[in-house]
Design goal:
single chain; 17 helices; alpha+beta; Beta-Lactamase; five-stranded mixed sheet; elongated
Length: about 650
């Protein structure tokens, strides 16, 4: 076909191509503008929707601040009329669609008043707790309608979207016109000039049609200059091709020399795997000459029979292959191992030939086989030792289980022995008051029988006086019996002591002293407390009352018994970091050093029970087990008894949780 015909055809095809470019630009502009319009509309609608929700939320906050307390008072006072008025007032608000009032009964919310459409769709609900004088009495649930908000958003969405589409179309047309006059028409001229160029001849430079007032160069002018420079460069490159071909021939000769002198086997194959050329290393490996190998199938010469079915599909796949290990048996019958790689040579995007590279690795594989055998022997030894270790581990596990069973048995026996000791102490404590009370009762019965037989005024007076003394003694023994029984019951922390909440420890002790006022006054004992009135802790107030009650009782019974000195009890309570420190001190007889070491032991002995009862054991149990603290006796602070108690406040919070 003549050159001018080709140029004419290319020029004719250029216009539809540029027309398609204009159409694509228009489509891209419209698409991007439409997406931007939709996104901006969605952002605006999202903003408007959030504003409407903020109005509903602000209304709910105002309702909570203004009506929650009055409605709680109406609910507490059972004023249904006032509650109706308040609910109707809420329904009159524009954002309120439904109102529900629930009364708190036994911890459950029971609906007592329902107004509005509670189950309506597109409704958001907000609940408020109704609290009267610090106590929750019910719950207020307000439903706000979103229907009007959504409808307004929908109408606004259509208007905004239509406006954006119209703006997008007008803007796209204007941009396309600008692009055509400033770019596309110049591109058409550049294309026509480029297709008319003859690479064998020189041509005048291209000049773009520019307005007279436009003198500054732009990117299109730079493109035209580049095309002219490229045309000139092609002429010089064509002249340089001949010199390049000569250099390439020299390179071919050099490469052939390198291939012939290489220790690796290098073979050129055609698409049917027939040998086209082979270097001298292949001749030395097989024993055949180069002429004998040319035209032969590479697979039949270099691959043993059992591996041919494996390598042939791989070569036929049309891919470069790396590190394919194959066995070869030479003319002397020696088997050798080669590591092959195959590179495809393309010409016009089609496979022209295959270059095979083979490296002899027979000695390497022999060494690897020896290493594998050594590894297998080592693995066998490791397996044997592993089995021995597993057997020893199973034996150790069995021994550990036996030790655990023995430990559990010892713990159970120790618990049973401790319980038996406590029961003996409890029996010892009960025997004396019961026997004394029984003796007094029998003596009273005999005296009553004697009085019924013969009574004089003098005998009657003496008998009545003796009966009064015996009654007092009997009452004392029965009180002691009740006290011992109560103490034994408190050896296990009951449910009341496990109720924990925030309380003032100063108020707790003051209430205890008020309940023990008569006992303190009868024995002329003064009690002084040094504690911050504002100190509040989260713990078990019943346990604290029991601890201080037993401490004071021990002082009254043992510390001030037949004591003629000052009768005073001091209680100091303070906090240090995360601990509560309690110092209890009386001015009585004090505690003997031999008894102080075991007074607050885990299980009291019979001697301790006879001297102090079970009160000290109860104190130690509450302090250590329930409150997680420590209790000790300080014998270095002069006369009287001084007891220190340290309680971790953080531990009490954990127990509370």
């Amino acid at each position: 076909m003549p050159q001018h015909a080709i140029n004419s055809q290319n020029s004719t095809n250029a216009k539809p191509a540029l027309s398609r470019l204009s159409l694509r630009i228009l489509v891209y502009i419209i698409l991007v503008s439409t997406i931007f319009a939709i996104l901006s509309t969605l952002v605006q609608l999202r903003f408007d929707y959030q504003q409407d929700l903020s109005v509903i939320e602000e209304t709910a906050i105002k309702i909570e601040s203004s009506l929650a307390q009055p409605m709680a008072a109406s609910l507490w006072n059972l004023d249904e009329q006032q509650l109706e008025i308040q609910v109707e007032g809420l329904l009159s608000l524009a954002t309120v669609q439904s109102v529900q009032v629930r009364e708190l009964i036994d911890g459950n919310g029971v609906p007592i008043l329902l107004r509005g459409d509670i189950n309506a769709p597109q409704q958001t609900k907000k609940s408020f707790e109704l609290i009267y004088q610090g106590q929750p009495v019910g719950e207020l649930i307000i439903g706000s309608s979103l229907h009007s908000v959504i409808e307004r958003i929908k109408s606004k969405a259509w208007i905004s979207l239509l406006t954006q589409i119209i703006q997008t179309l007008c803007l796209s047309i204007a941009i396309l016109l600008i692009i055509y006059f400033s770019l596309i028409r110049h591109l058409n001229r550049i294309v026509e000039h480029t297709r008319s160029l003859d690479l064998d001849k020189s041509a005048p430079g291209l000049k773009l049609q520019r307005p007279a007032f436009s003198s500054r160069k732009d990117e299109l002018d730079s493109l035209v200059e580049t095309l002219d420079q490229m045309h000139q460069r092609i002429h010089s490159e064509l002249r340089a091709n001949q010199a390049t071909n000569i250099a390439l021939q020299a390179e071919r000769d050099f490469v052939k020399t390198v291939i012939d002198s290489s220790n690796a086997v290098i073979i050129t194959l055609d698409k049917k795997f027939k040998i086209k050329d082979v270097n001298p290393s292949g001749v030395l490996l097989t024993g055949f000459t180069q002429d004998e190998m040319r035209g032969q199938n590479w697979i039949s010469l270099f691959v043993d029979h059992e591996q041919r079915n494996i390598i042939e599909p791989l070569l036929a796949s049309g891919k470069n292959l790396q590190d394919i290990e194959l066995n070869l048996t030479d003319l002397q019958g020696r088997q050798q191992t080669l590591l092959w790689s195959f590179a495809l040579v393309y010409e016009h995007e089609r496979v022209k030939s295959i270059v095979a590279f083979g490296h002899e690795i027979t000695s390497i594989r022999s060494s690897q086989q020896q290493v594998l055998e050594l590894n297998e022997q080592l693995e066998a030894k490791v397996s044997q030792r592993t089995q021995r270790l597993e057997e020893r581990n199973r034996l150790l596990a069995s021994t550990l289980e036996e030790l655990k069973d023995t430990q559990e048995s010892l713990i159970a026996a120790e618990k049973q022995a401790s319980f038996n000791q406590l029961f003996q102490i409890f029996s010892r404590e009960l025997n004396l008051p019961i026997a004394s009370a029984l003796s007094d009762a029998q003596d009273l019965r005999l005296r009553c029988e004697k009085i019924s037989e013969q009574v004089t005024i003098t005998d009657a007076a003496e008998t009545l006086d003796q009966q009064q003394q015996q009654h007092l003694h009997l009452e004392s023994q029965l009180e002691r019996l009740a006290h011992v029984t109560s103490n034994f019951k408190q050896l296990v922390v009951d449910d009341e002591q496990r109720i924990a909440y925030a309380f003032s420890i100063n108020d707790n002790i003051q209430q205890l002293l008020h309940s023990m006022h008569d006992r303190l006054e009868n024995q002329h004992v003064s009690c002084h407390i040094k504690c911050d009135p504002q100190l509040e802790i989260h713990s078990y107030p019943a346990a604290f009352s029991q601890i201080f009650s037993n401490l004071i009782s021990n002082s009254l019974v043992h510390g001030f018994d037949q004591w003629s000195g000052e009768r005073r009890i001091d209680i100091q309570i303070s906090t240090y970091r995360s601990h509560l420190r309690v110092i209890y001190q009386d001015s009585g007889k004090g505690i003997e050093p031999t008894m102080a070491a075991t007074l607050f032991s885990a299980s009291p002995s019979s001697a301790q029970a006879s001297a102090n009862g079970l009160g000290c054991h109860i104190i130690a149990s509450l302090v250590r087990q329930l409150l997680g603290g420590e209790i000790s006796i300080d014998l270095s602070e002069g006369p009287g008894s001084r007891i220190k108690i340290v309680l971790p406040l953080e531990e009490n919070k954990k127990n509370l949780i």
